[in-house]
Structure formats: C-alpha cells, structure tokens
Amino acid sequence: MKKSLPLIRHFCPLTLFLYGTYKENGTPNFGTFSWFNYYFDNEVSVMACIAGEKQTKDRIRATKTFSANLVTEELLPLADYFGNVSGYDINKMNVSVEIETGCVLNVPVLVKSPWVYELEVDRTLKFDGSDLFFCKVKNVLADESIVDEPENVESWMNLIRPVQSVRQCYFNWNGATIGNFGELKDSWGRYDFVI
Ligand SMILES: Cc1cc2nc3c(=O)[nH]c(=O)nc-3n(C[C@H](O)[C@H](O)[C@H](O)COP(=O)(O)O)c2cc1C
After folding, report:
1. Which residues contact 91 (CB under 8 A, 6 or more apart)?
2. Is the CB of 50 inside a 6 Å radius of any atom of ligand 1?
3. Full-model pTM
4. Are the CB atoms for 72 and 159 separated by under 8 Å?
C-alpha cells in the first residue's frame, strides 16, 4: 500500500561529492553537492544541479570545468564544513586539507578522495535560480585500491565507504545515520579535521 505525500516529505537518497574549482586568483575552492547524477550519451556523463548564487557556480560558469570528489566517511566532517560555509567567505579555504591539480584539466582535486571526476561542462540548462550542468567526464582519478577488478564489488564498498544523505541526514555506507547537516562539529562548535 502506498500513500500520496507532499513533495517536501521527499525520500531521496543522494551520494555526496565535493566540487573543486579554482577561483579568479588561482586558489582552490571546494563546496559540497548532492544533486548529482549520471546520464548516458555515447558515454557515461554527469549532470550537476546548483541552486542560488555560490562561489562554485560562478567558477563553473567561468571556467566550464570542475572536479567532483566522492565523499567518504573519512571526508564527511570536511564535507559538512564545505557545505555550510560560503565560498564568498574569504576564510573558507583556511583549513588543513591536501589538494593537488587534476591530471587532464586544471581543476583542484582532494588527495584523500578515492574517486574523482575531472569534468568539463558540455551544456547548461538555466532554470529559475538553478543551473543544471551537463558534463563530459574527461578523466577519472581512482585510488590504487579500486583500480583492479574486484572479486566482489562489496569489497570496494567496504574500502571506499561512500556517504549518502536523505533529507538533512547523513548515512554511512551500510545505512546507519552519522548526524545531520551542519552538526558535525566538536563540543566547542568547531570543525576539527586534518585531511
Ligand atoms: C550535504 C550537503 C549537500 C549539498 N548539496 C547541494 C546541491 O546539490 N546543490 C546546491 O546548490 N547546494 C548544495 N549544498 C549547499 C552548498 O554546499 C553550500 O551553499 C556551500 O556553501 C557552497 O559553497 P561555495 O560558495 O564555496 O560554492 C549542499 C550542502 C550540504 C551540507
């Protein structure tokens, strides 16, 4: 038996990614995004929806490139921070995080993310405040541990442990809740991570 619900009560599990862009001054910026999915057009491609005005959106529009770094359980406190502090705040990137540049595109990449797409925007659909970017995958950067074909894919999930969100709640790879958006701070209300 099913019941009709108002859309606001959505149940919509999403996988989290950190989008990396270079700002106008050449320094990296990262934001957290979940409205991310795949489509197929001769090859596997990526679509990413960004609402409102954000540093990440400005830089994707300007450079037509960005990286999408899969969020793992280890990276979640960092993702919670990057998703709750605006890139217009000049201090946002004053955090301890290892960053390198992509292999094919000039995009910042998180060293600790085990699965990263280097993306180039192919087309953009502008809605009423949101932009939907359709992207070609120019390169995939994968951690050595998931390069060789696995005996079973479950072993990859055990290694990578990607995080999902449903509504305002984070879930670990095997379904237990980790906390709510904006709440992964220490008892002093500060984010505490070295990535
Ligand atoms: C878990 C999580 C998921 C998010 N997903 C999206 C998303 O898919 N689209 C979006 O526009 N904003 C999303 N946000 C909000 C942005 O991350 C937030 O506005 C951030 O400050 C943007 O940073 P920036 O200004 O550096 O781009 C999300 C935030 C969190 C915490």
Report:
1. none
2. yes
3. 0.95
4. no
Assess whether the C-beta atom of 22 lies below 6 angstroms from ligand 1: no
CB 14 within 8 A of CB 85: no
**Cα distance between residue 174 and residue 92, in whole Å:** 31
For residue 56 and ligand 1, the question of a CB distance below 6 A is answered with yes
Tell me which of 19, 24, 32 to substitute to probe ligand 1's pocket, judged by most ligand atoms within 8 Å of the beta carbon.
32
Residue 125: other Cβ atoms inside 10 A = 11
Tens-place pLDDT, residues 14-69: 999 999 999 999 999 999 999 999 999 999 999 999 999 999 999 999 999 999 99
pLDDT tens profile 123-159: 999 999 999 999 999 999 999 988 888 888 898 899 9
